[in-house]
């Protein structure tokens, strides 16, 4: 069988050529969307369970209402939309380094784009999430109730080596400054739970846990797994 791809967008970026394409996946008989950066596959709409669970698990750990959420990494939009489905969320800010990705959603190219962009709680920002986190919080602006991060493959495998400093205790303390008291940080990873990273996480946060998220893989016919780390600010 010949798989036909429709290229929806291609743009050069500082970290490689970015491509959005659509194709029919024979194993499920449905249309899927894929993102490539250079020669790397970044994401597919065939596998969104863990991206949604990033939002679900992160928000489940937060108490109270009138929540503000910061998402690092927009991608296909599934984490952000899952967060918006929690009625306690008052405002959602999504930061993505690549303006092209924001443009895909503003042009309604992806399955959840309309739900994401039409929600008045949503703000899409073109910026470097990691640079934002390294900087001091804006004076007079309260911390976020939840920070959800899905940019790198895992704490050990970054898309850009400049991201590495976030995943040690010093970098996590910088991130913690942007959380409200008892706010929650949650992180998606494509790797199994990482004991070394858990040591760093526990050095900064309370109640750190690595959730294994299993999902059916129609391509392999088996079950695949991702990890979602969730931890609470000590305030």
Structure, briefly:
With about 240 residues, the chain is an alpha/beta fold. The protein contains seven helices and eleven strands.
Please give a structural write-up.
- The chain has 235 residues and is α/β, with parallel strands linked by helices.
- It is built from seven helices and eleven strands.
- It has a seven-stranded mixed sheet. It has a four-stranded antiparallel sheet with strand order 1-2-3-4, with no helix packed on it.
- β8, α6 and β9 form a beta-alpha-beta unit.
- α6 packs across α7.
- The longest helix has 12 residues.
- It is globular and about 50 Å long.
- The mean pLDDT is 94.
- Strand count: 11
**Low-confidence segments:** none
Average pLDDT works out at: 94
Q: Which range does the strand content fall in?
A: 35-45%
* Major sheet attributes: 7 strands, mixed
Q: If you compute it from the alpha carbons, what radius of gyration comes out, rounded to the nearest whole angstrom?
A: 17 Å
In DSSP terms, counting alpha (H) and pi (I) runs of 4 or more, how many helices? 7
Structural class: alpha/beta
Determine the fraction of residues in helical runs and give it as a percent range: 10-25%
Order of helices and strands: EEEEHEHEHHEHEHEHEE
Report the principal-axis shape: globular
